[in-house]
Design goal:
Helix content: 25-40%
Number of helices: 2
Number of strands: 4
Structural class: alpha+beta
Oligomer: single chain
Radius of gyration: 14 Å
Length: about 100
């Protein structure tokens, strides 16, 4: 089973590759959302300058506005989704 540390490590490597590619375009995302996973209700979100945080869907936009008040969450150049934009794993109240 993959641990959070493994996920963050592989995500960090993927992030470095994307950053190299984006530097060529002179655009660097301020927010990155890690790959969709079904073993958690959260997605890992990286806020530039603040690091990674596991967030539930209802936490995403308030946190984004906290770090970057004027950022449009739908701007694909500044908000990068690894896959499945705006999707979070299914979760129902009462589940662990």
């Amino acid at each position: 089973m993959e641990t959070l540390r493994d996920t963050v490590g592989s995500t960090a490597r993927d992030r470095e590759r994307r950053m190299d590619a984006s530097r060529q375009l002179d655009v660097e995302p301020l927010v990155e959302i890690a790959e969709f996973r079904t073993d958690s209700r959260y997605r890992l979100v990286h806020f530039k300058g603040a690091g990674w945080k596991p967030l539930a869907p209802e936490e995403f936009e308030p946190e984004l506005k906290h770090f970057f008040p004027d950022l449009d969450p739908h701007d694909p150049k500044l908000v990068y989704w690894e896959d499945r934009p705006w999707e979070w794993p299914a979760w129902r109240p009462g589940e662990a």
